[in-house]
Amino acid sequence: MNAIETQELTYTYSKGTPFEKTAVDRVTLAIEKGSYVGVIGHTGSGKSTLIQHFNGLLQPTSGKVLVGGQDIWADKSKLRQFRFQVGLVFQYPEYQLFGETVYSDIAFGPGNMGLNPDEINQRVHQSARFVGLTEDQLQKSPFELSGGQKRRVAIAGVLAMDPEVLILDEPTAGLDPKGRDQILGEIREYHEEKKNTILLVSHSMEDIARYANRALVMNHSHLFAYDTVEGIFSRAEELSAMGLAIPQVSRVFLELSRRGAPVSPNVYTVDQAVRELLGKLEKGGDKK
Ligand SMILES: Nc1ncnc2c1ncn2[C@@H]1O[C@H](COP(=O)(O)OP(=O)(O)O)[C@@H](O)[C@H]1O
Ligand SMILES: [Mg+2]
Asked: Deepest of 46, 194, 222, 265, by most Cβ within 10 A of its Cβ?
């Protein structure tokens, strides 16, 4: 079962003007339910434009977008439903906070869905817990919080809608490494618990390696590839030609394996590398 499909999806900004720009060009893909997809590509490759189609924020210039097998533009009166099904956290979402309290900000989405107050209350608390916001913080003004905490409020607001597909557009941009790891760790836990579909737009190949099981690569408005992370990283040279460097440790293991060393070519993190090497050493020891 596919969570999201596109068929020859094309989007052109400012069509018919001198500023015309085709940002997504005939993209066809199918994202399986339950995947955790890393979306990568150079700046301006079309990532943000592509994902804004998945919940109907942008309407294709041509081609189709299907959510759960249904064309989301087939019947405009149903569009709202798809917007609840596919939650989108924008880049720098903290600029869109407006609630008097953190609580009311997070409650906005579920309120829009017409849920009853008990259900809303439960969802606000649950999603606040997911992103590590305290009860105390729920009663504060979002503007009293730090940058990282504001970002968490915005993410919690989308989680509270309990979307089947959660899309995050560079959710850690501008955060320090600690805040970055925390937020990505929280999203991973959320994915493991909910088993829903996640799309994470990221600049960091390390993050894709660590968290995603699929990768979608955009290059100059075209889909370069959609595959398992292993499959994508094995094309290191093509990626680096488009300015996307795979993690250093991956390059080392890919090259070792190419030269005939008995190691896995699919190592993406230093932790994995340590385990891989220790495993080999132990096996080697047995033989003696
Ligand atoms: N609102 C807009 N109007 C006109 N052109 C845009 C707009 N938004 C993005 N673009 C252009 O579309 C292309 C893809 O942009 P975008 O989807 O934001 O890429 P990415 O998210 O990969 O950086 C870029 O050339 C960008 O300049
Ligand atoms: Mg973008």
From this structure: 46
Overall residue count recorded for the chain in this entry: 288
Which residue, judged by its Cα, is nearest atom 26 of ligand 1?
Answer: 44
- Distance, in Å, from the CA atom of 85 to the CA atom of 80, rounded to the nearest integer, reads 9
- pLDDT in tens for each of the 288 residues of the chain? 999 999 999 999 999 999 999 999 999 999 999 999 999 999 999 999 999 999 999 999 999 999 999 999 999 999 999 999 999 999 988 888 988 999 999 999 999 999 999 999 999 999 999 999 999 999 999 999 998 899 999 999 999 999 999 999 999 998 888 889 999 999 999 999 999 999 999 988 888 988 999 999 999 999 999 999 989 988 888 998 888 988 888 889 988 988 999 998 888 888 889 999 999 888 775 544
Q: Whose CA is nearest to atom 25 of ligand 1?
A: 44
Q: Of ligand 1's atoms, which has the minimum distance to the CA of residue 218?
A: 22
Q: In the chain, what are the domains?
A: 2-232 (3.40.50.300), 247-288 (no CATH)
Rounded Cα–Cα distance for residues 126 and 120 (Å): 10
Ligand 1 site residues (CB inside 6 A) read 13-14, 21, 23, 41, 43-49
Pocket test for ligand 1, best of 10, 11, 13 (most atoms within 8 A of CB): 13
C-alpha–C-alpha distance, residues 283 and 109, integer Å: 54
Q: Whose CA is nearest to atom 24 of ligand 1?
A: 44
